[in-house]
Design goal:
The complex is a heterodimer.
Chain A lengths: L25 H12 L3 H17 L1 H15 L5 H54 L2 H6 L2 H43 L1 H48 L1 H6 L3 H54 L13 H23 L1 H19 L10 E7 L5 E4 L6 E6 L5 E5 L4 E11 L2 E11 L4 E6 L5 H8 L7 E6 L2 E2 L5 H6 L1 E4 L8 E2 H6 L7 H11 L2 H6 L7 E2 L8 H15 L3 E5 L7 H15 L3 E5 L3 H4 L4 E6 L2 E6 L1 H7 L2 H7 L6
Parallel strand pairs in A: 7-14, 7-15, 10-13, 13-14
Antiparallel strand pairs in A: 1-2, 1-3, 3-4, 5-6, 5-8, 8-9, 11-12, 15-16
Chain B lengths: L1 H5 L6 H33 L4 H49 L3 H6 L2 H25 L2 H17 L4 H44 L1 H6 L3 H27 L1 H27 L6 H43 L19 E8 L10 E8 L4 E6 L5 H6 L9 E6 L2 E2 L5 H7 E4 L8 E2 H5 L8 H10 L3 H6 L7 E2 L8 H13 L5 E5 L7 H14 L4 E5 L3 H4 L4 E6 L2 E6 L1 H7 L1 H12 L6
Parallel strand pairs in B: 3-10, 3-11, 6-9, 9-10
Antiparallel strand pairs in B: 1-2, 1-4, 4-5, 7-8, 11-12
């Protein structure tokens, strides 16, 4: 069972003020990763972007030149002469265009390749990182939040990589090109233009920032609406039984209206940015034309790199460049939203990747063993059905201990949150083949004990030994391989029934899987499924009943054939009549194994070798059924039904 | 499909139309601006008087301001219209779902309904916004620009005769090819996300079996598969830009070369320099509008999947309807099943219930017992008409349930479902689901009867204690007792408990039943249970097996006559007291 404790604040890059918060290094890290994945292709793409941007900035100068030529000679009517002058320019233009097209084709194709490759790599490294995270992470973060890293955050990252960043690069290159040409022509006019452009930037920052703010608010309202919808959809039958539809409608309307309001604002801001920037551009154009005109008439001296005097031949291209310049600022401002959202998403993705992995200093491993008649153990690579712990020591020697299933907990204390002890002074001795049961109310710490044996959580104080070895020394994957668990909440995977059973041991043959199912009492119903063992399960086995899913989970643990098994409410969803039928198989399954059983139903635990009654993290009674009945304590009360377990 | 969704625009038709109008205004000015700009440049060039230049400049500035205002208004109305459309869609879907019956609810999984109301609605909202922003604007710009190009450019406009069809054809081909590729990818993408979710949920299993590497490998393969498909699809779409550039560049070279030839040869008579500049500008605009049109096409097709999913919900008809002249008063709590057979779907082969004949007197306490899948729950769900019978009839108070007003029937028949839920809110708020007008005294009384008062009072906030989503902060037994109290507040004529005391200890369970007997004797009580002890005092015990009534009788009779009953009884008494 999941302990949904929230010691971490919910993930999501939100600062208290509701403003997007992305850490400073995020962009840098994303770019670094991008380049490290594609050390050749990314620079090539960047070059292509630069080139195509420059190529699209230049022609305006060429066309201007050509137009000038036409202007100069059209009155002559001498096409042959004009052609001499124009043709080379046009050919140059065509050459440039051709390069530009090649560059742009390469760039867009590479971009498609890189973006998808990068996202795929990010997805994989997120997933791989996630697999190494401790169970604590999954217990303390909402599953929906974790999922949104893979869906929403990846989507915003895609926007950032495939559109916002290239467009930003392209716009800045064009702006820089145009700017240098402008300086070449006239410095005072350039300064004038820059004044206007800074106004545009201020406006776009304001409007763009507002839009980003509301987009993030919209996201929040959407989350709230989603939560409400989820709750009501899950409880829709209860709503119907109580004829509570009208109240739900009213509640939903309220949430829906709030979402509408935020969404409207966010989009209004986003939509307004385009026309505002474009028309400021238009006004700036007029201003430049006017002031240019005045400048022209006043005959004030020009400062420029070219040293040309300010004339009509400067003003006209200057006006064209103004258009180009403002057009690109517009392009740029359109991306602000995507960048803010993208960085926030990237931030969340990185923070998932940055989560600390489950530490594992274990060096004792589980190996296949051959044991000869003298009890000597030798390591082999073949599957012998016998296992041993391989224990390398500091002095270079290695000892082998046969895997037996002896688990001892000595004076163990544990707390999920510091200061809030969940277990105190727990000592449990389980000898190979014994059945140990834990009984107690919800929250008494039953599941916690099993969480400690397989090291989902690490103990705060005390010792746990497995076959005499401190479990901290055992490699986690090997430790867990030697323990089979069946949980109350059954999780099956998409795939066939057979694949689900084989999950317990990947090299199990079909016969072994069927045998395990038979042992678990699942064979019967599986054969009655439409395609028997090849029936596809989806959506966590939604087409099976809870009890049937538990039976498959038991078969899955059985095929793993571990020396120690943990059954945490494994039969809680199977009705008593079916349980009685399954019981025989279960008894056979438990034979010769150390078994830890947690159950509410006393009938499930009565035949245990030792029953521990837990209360608030302490063992208050221990002994077998008869001992505990004789004690007339809590167990006795439970047994007679005088006491309630929750 | 589009028609069905368009109905949801309603009050936001006005902003939608306003958007269109203002966008028309904005587009007209936008096409005129290059024309005036060219004029301005010409005037400056020709060295006309400053005041003339100022005049044209002023005109241009005013036009820019008007365009700005139009644009801003259109932006706001457009956001309003699209956000409002989305709101109405969610509103309609939610309402529709509220009108669903159990049969309809069974059809859709709750998570799919959530996706439809969030992601799908957002997709439709985005494309709606795109459509009203550009559906008029782009064709308009296209037409304006072509007209202006002909007016201004004359013969030079022939360039478009070549370029436009090529571009249009190319864009259509690209969209056609890309669309199915994207659809395939999105499907795979959904599957990938489902498998991630499976991992997140089942992490204990993954780790418990040390299957981290196996899962990583599985995921990497799936991710790689998607990457390939996704790249393929994106690369097709990526052809748009070069195609566009080729057409644009062709247009420029053509205009420049042919234009200059014509200008020089005619000495500026047929074509002049200003026209060349204008042609360059309009060429750009024409190609841009074509590009936008192809984008709209892509967006609409991409969101059509979402539209389809939304329509599915909106067009699903509730399986039960209120009768024409409904009976609103339930006379008493007697129940009759007359030759009832039932299956969940028309196509199902097996009947879930078969040949049920049963009479229950008002005020009786009835126990129902039977294994998993014996259709105990199905039987009682027919009483408040959560499903309609396939054959035969169910009568409450002597009247066929199909003749009652559904709400009246259900407020007289309280049912505590097996999979019961509390909702986020305080305990009191949750209890008031049973009766919105219940006084505090009534609430406490109901809780006392359900043996819930004691533990509620033990909470620091008592009845104002907040219940978290899914009721995770109360234990299973507490939740069950609160659900019973909630049902009691309805003051029903029939009370149905579907395995509702499974997490309550036998003593409390007995106290609840004792309370029922003394405080609500006239109410018919139907108790489904796994525990024999919960039903053994009942006036009548029904033993269900495989969709049929196997035996009916009192405890002592059944011990003799029913094999199943005896078996369960022995199992539970020998195996100690079954205590869940």
């Amino acid at each position: 069972m999941n302990k949904q404790k929230s010691f971490n604040p919910p993930k999501g890059g939100m600062a208290p003020g509701g403003r997007p918060m992305s850490k400073k290094g995020t962009l840098k890290r994303i770019l670094k990763m991008l380049i490290s994945f594609y050390p050749v292709l990314v620079p090539v793409t960047a070059c292509c972007i630069l080139f195509s941007a420059a190529a699209s900035a230049m022609p305006s100068i060429f066309t201007q030149k050509i137009i000038e030529v036409i202007e100069k000679c059209y009155q002559s009517g001498d096409w042959a002469a004009a052609k001499e002058e124009i043709l080379p320019k046009i050919i140059l233009l065509i050459v440039m265009y051709s390069f530009s097209i090649i560059a742009i084709t390469t760039q867009t194709q590479l971009m498609a390749y890189i973006t998808q490759g990068f996202l795929s790599k990010m997805r994989c490294s997120m997933f791989n990182g996630m697999q190494t995270l401790p169970i604590r992470y999954f217990d303390t973060n909402k599953h929906g939040d974790i999922m949104s890293h893979y869906t929403n955050d990846i989507d915003t990252l895609r926007q950032l990589i495939s559109q916002a960043l290239p467009s930003l690069l392209q716009s800045s290159v064009i702006v820089l090109c145009v700017l240098s040409i402008m300086i070449y022509y006239s410095i005072p006019m350039t300064l004038l233009l820059l004044c206007g452009v800074s106004l545009m930037l201020v406006v776009s920052k304001k409007v763009g920032g507002g839009s980003a703010k509301y987009f993030i608010r919209q996201q929040k309202s959407l989350g709230k609406a989603e939560g409400y919808i989820q709750e009501i959809m899950n409880g829709q039958k209860v709503v119907k039984v109580f004829c509570h539809e009208d109240e739900c409608k009213a509640d939903f309307d309220e949430i829906n209206n709030a979402l509408y309001e935020d969404s409207r604002r966010a989009h209004a801001y986003a939509n307004i940015l385009g026309p505002v920037i474009m028309n400021i551009g238009n006004i700036l154009y007029v201003l430049i034309a006017m002031i240019g005109g005045v400048y022209l008439i006043s005959g004030l001296p020009n400062f420029s790199l070219s040293g040309m005097a300010f004339g009509i031949s400067i003003l006209v291209p200057f006006l064209n460049m103004t258009k180009q310049f403002t057009g690109n600022v517009n392009q740029f401002s359109q991306q602000i939203n995507a960048i803010v959202m993208g960085l926030a998403g990237a931030d969340r993705i990185l923070s998932l990747m940055d989560e600390e992995s489950e530490a594992d200093e274990g060096y004792v491993t589980l190996v296949n063993a051959e044991i000869d008649s003298n009890g000597n153990i030798a390591e082999t690579n073949e599957r012998t059905g016998k296992w041993a712990w391989k224990h390398p020591h500091g002095d270079g020697t290695t000892t082998y201990t046969p895997l037996a299933g002896d688990v001892r907990m000595v004076e163990v204390d544990f707390a999920y949150e510091e200061g809030k002890d969940v277990l105190h002074d727990i000592s449990v001795y389980a000898e190979p083949g014994q059945k140990i049961a834990f009984v107690g109310a919800t929250g008494a710490g039953k599941t916690t004990i099993t969480n400690l044996i397989n090291r989902f959580y690490d103990i705060a104080d005390g010792k746990i030994r497995y076959d005499g070895i401190n479990i901290n020394k055992i490699k986690k994957s090997d430790l867990r391989r030697s323990l089979g668990i069946v949980l109350q909440e059954t999780n099956l995977f998409t795939g066939t029934v057979m694949e689900n059973i084989r999950y317990g041991r990947l090299d199990a043959s079909e016969e072994e899987c069927i045998e395990a199912a038979r042992l678990a009492g699942a064979d019967d119903f599986i054969r009655r499924l439409p395609n028997g063992y090849n029936t596809e399960l989806s959506n966590n086995g939604a087409n099976l009943s809870q009890g049937q899913r538990q039976l498959i989970a038991i078969a899955r643990a059985a095929v793993a054939d571990p020396p120690v098994m943990i059954l945490d409410e494994a039969t809680s969803s199977i009705d008593t009549r079916t349980e009685a039928i399954v019981q025989k198989g279960m008894d056979k399954l438990m034979e010769g194994r150390t078994v830890f059983v947690i159950a509410h139903r006393l009938s499930t635990v009565m035949n245990s070798d030792v029953i521990m009654v837990l209360d608030h993290g302490r063992i208050i009674e221990r002994g077998n059924h008869n001992d505990l009945i004789a004690q007339k304590g809590t167990y006795y009360q439970l047994y007679t039904g005088a006491f309630e377990l929750e | 499909m589009v028609k069905r969704l368009a109905k949801c625009v309603r009050e936001f038709k006005k902003p939608a139309i306003l958007t269109l109008i203002f966008i028309v205004g904005e587009s007209i000015i936008e096409t005129l601006i290059p024309f005036i700009t060219a004029d301005l440049v010409n005037r400056i060039k020709n060295g006309v008087a400053m005041n003339e230049v100022v005049k044209t400049g002023g005109l241009l500035a005013i036009m820019a301001v008007i365009s700005l205002i139009c644009g801003a208004i259109a932006a706001a109305t457009c956001a309003k219209a699209s956000a409002g459309f989305a709101r109405n869609l969610r509103h309609d879907i939610f309402r529709k779902i509220q009108s669903y019956t159990f049969e309809n609810i069974d059809k859709f999984s709750s998570s799919s309904l959530v996706t439809r109301m969030t992601t799908d609605v957002s997709n439709v909202q985005m494309s709606f916004m795109m459509i009203i922003r550009t559906a008029i604007r782009s064709p308009l710009m296209l037409i304006f620009s072509i007209i202006m190009a002909y007016v201004m450019g004359g013969a030079l406009a022939t360039a478009f005769v070549i370029v436009v069809p090529v571009l249009a054809f190319g864009l259509i081909m690209i969209s056609r090819k890309a669309m199915p590729a994207f659809r395939r990818v999105f499907k795979k993408y959904d599957t990938l996300n489902e498998s991630i979710e499976e991992n997140v949920r089942g992490m204990r299993v993954v780790k418990g079996f040390s299957r981290e590497n196996y899962e990583k490998q599985k995921f990497e393969n799936a991710a790689e598969d998607i990457r390939k498909d996704f790249t393929k699809a994106e690369r097709i779409v990526a052809l748009n830009t070069p195609l566009m550039q080729i057409c644009l560049y062709f247009n420029m070279v053509f205009v420049l070369f042919v234009g200059s030839k014509m200008t020089v040869e005619s000495m500026g008579q047929t074509v002049d320099v200003g026209q060349i500049s204008a042609m360059l500008t309009y060429g750009m605009q024409i190609l841009m509008s074509l590009m936008m049109l192809s984008m709209i096409y892509v967006m609409i097709t991409m969101s059509s999947e979402s539209m389809k999913r939304i329509c599915e919900v909106l067009e699903e008809e509730p399986a039960l309807t209120n009768p024409k002249n409904p009976v609103t008063n339930v006379p008493d709590g007697s129940i009759d099943f007359c030759d009832v057979s039932f299956k969940y779907s028309k196509h199902a082969e097996k009947y879930a219930l078969f040949d049920i004949d049963l009479h229950i007197d008002s005020g009786m306490t009835v126990g129902i017992i039977g294994g998993t899948g014996s259709s105990k729950s199905t039987l009682v769900q027919l009483i408040p008409r959560l499903y309609d019978v396939t054959q035969g009839s169910v009568k409450v108070g002597g009247i066929d349930v199909r003749n009652y007003d559904i709400e009246s029937l259900r407020s007289s028949v309280a049912m505590v479902l097996q999979k019961n839920l509390l909702f986020s809110g305080t305990i009191k708020e949750n209890l008031r689901w049973g009766n919105a007008e219940a006084t505090d005294e009534e609430i406490i009384e109901a809780c006392k009867l359900a043996q819930a008062d004691e533990f509620v009072m033990s909470f620091p906030d008592g009845y104002d204690t907040k219940i978290e989503q899914g009721g995770t902060n109360v234990s299973g037994g507490q939740k069950q007792r609160l659900c019973i109290a909630r049902a009691l507040l309805k003051k029903p004529k029939i009370l149905i408990l579907d395995d509702s005391t499974s997490a309550v200890d036998t003593k409390t369970d007995a106290m609840i039943r004792k309370g029922f007997a003394s405080y609500i004797p006239e109410t018919t009580k139907i108790i489904i249970a796994q525990r024999i002890s919960s039903v053994q005092d009942a006036d009548m015990i029904i033993v269900m097996d495989n969709g049929k009534i196997s035996d009916i009788g009192k405890h002592d009779e059944l011990l003799k006559s029913s094999e199943i009953y005896r078996e369960v009884y022995q199992q539970q008494t020998n195996g100690g007291d079954d205590n869940e």
